[in-house]
Amino acid sequence: MTDASPKRAVLAALSHEPDFSGLLRLPSPETRAGCNFLRWLDQSGLAPSLMWQLEKHGATPRMSRTWRDALGGRQTRNFERSRDMLNEVGRIDTAFRSFAVVAALLKGFSLCPDFCDHPSLRHQADLDFLVDPESLRPAAEALRSCGYVAPHLNETGETCFFTPSKHIPSSRDDLYALQWHRQVDLHISIWEPCPWLPVEVPQDCLDFARPQNTLGVDYLSLSLEDKFLVQVLHVFWHSFRSWIRLSWLLETATFIDNHRENLILWNRIIKRAASAKLTKSIFAFVLGLVSRLFNTPAPSGLTSWTATAMTPSLHTWLDNFAIDWAISDWPGSLSNLFLTAEFIPDPDLRLQYWRSRLLPRKSHSSIGSVATAGTREFLQLQAARLSYVAHRAAVHMKDIVALPWQQFRWKRALESSRRPGFEPNC
């Protein structure tokens, strides 16, 4: 695992009350440790935001010239990438309208400016749209008219569409370069069906969708309250698959800071989220992560609403495991397994979920969408797949080996939290 000290220094620099004092001690990008840390910054999605934060607070002298050059170059390339992807949003939106399809952009550029100041602060690989189930087929036709293909149409969940590509991904690829191929995911709900997590979500989000314009490009987006609900659910969904991008939590923190005093908005969010215990637990978990990582406290209305879901076990995990789990290298850490009972009360379903995490069968990867023209390209693609799987397997095995020690830590933390006079962190 990459050294945690520089990771924590970045969290401090991006926190509610920024502290840039640790940035001068970052390892040089020209060293192996620096390269590994820079890779973590890229994968976490924090690299563009870190440079923006330094410039915003006049703190660029806190970093070495080599670091400023590395981050500045990423910022410039990501701006061009974002502009290119935003143009694609406009092209797809036009196609949807020509097929009489009402489709709202999920996440992505629609999060600006409430969740982040500028589109170039977000690194994204695909585009997500929400459509009514009855519009799924014409929406698919609209995407096909734009050059996208899908192996099959999933009428009960997410369908992934790709443009053809002959580029074989590798670890040396520049994440901020213009896309070699594009991916669009069609959703018919803001929550994908899951046997372990029957989350109740509103099915009328499109009824409250509204026009949005980003840098001159028009499209349809969700209401502000539904955007926040989707953001929380998105973070949680990926956390239960083992790993999240820290930039998603930073965006959540930014939204909270931007709208902290808007009591009407928070009440609307609570109303849209409803009152199911599982939903409250999800909010408590995600808001707890935001608080621990970026020192951004949740609005009082949400804190009161999730109070019953903030159990002693959840509090203990957030205080003792949240940061290390969140800053772990891709593909993530298994330590959040200790929270399974908080979200999956049924023991049989819980066992199924544990098996899916400890013995994963497969993982989604756009590597599979690459078209090969000859034997050489086919062999290169298979090598890339094997390398990808081998890396995931190696990290996964290390995590499994470390799990007994983590479980021992978990039991000790629980015992400490039950002692008389113990005060949990807020």
Distance from N terminus to C terminus (CA atoms, Å) equals 28 Å
Sheet of most strands: 4 strands, mixed
Overall form? globular
Give me the Rg, rounded: 22 Å
Helix content percent band: 40-55%
Whole-number mean pLDDT: 90
Outline the structure in words.
This protein is of the alpha+beta class and 426 residues long. The chain has one domain (4-417). Helix content is 50%, strand content 7%. It has helices at residues 4-13, 32-44, 47-56, 65-98, 136-145, 224-239, 246-259, 263-273, 277-294, 300-305, 312-320, 322-326, 340-343, 347-358, 375-417, and strands spanning 103-106, 127-131, 159-162, 183-187, 210-214, 217-221. Strand 5 and strand 6 (217-221) form a beta hairpin. The mean pLDDT is 90.
Task: List its traits.
426 residues; alpha+beta; globular
Q: How is the secondary structure organized here?
A:
Layout: H1 4-13, H2 32-44, H3 47-56, H4 65-98, E1 103-106, E2 127-131, H5 136-145, E3 159-162, E4 183-187, E5 210-214, E6 217-221, H6 224-239, H7 246-259, H8 263-273, H9 277-294, H10 300-305, H11 312-320, H12 322-326, H13 340-343, H14 347-358, H15 375-417
Tell me briefly what this model is.
With 426 residues, this protein is α+β, with helices and mostly antiparallel strands. It has one domain (4-417). It contains 15 helices and six strands.
